[in-house]
Amino acid sequence: MENLENPTLKETVKKDTELKKWLVNYVGEKTNPENGNVTVEMIVDVLAKEFPEFLMVVAEENFIRGYEQAIADVEAGEESSGGKKKKKKK
Known about the structure:
The chain has helices at 18-31, 40-50, 52-80. The chain is an all-alpha fold.
């Protein structure tokens, strides 16, 4: 089975905006990483524990957009293969 983990999770977050500075410092204090680097995954973990409703909204929106894209792709595939015709809206 192939590895489906997003490599961005392991990236160290750069403090290049005020929000990132605050968030990296906050997460760093919570997780106390040995090397002092805060990764995207650490931020996600802290947000999941302390602000789960934020992550749920992002995840739900991502799911809905992915589902809508999948439906559009299926419809486009059917049209291009001579299958079911797309209904025109009035």
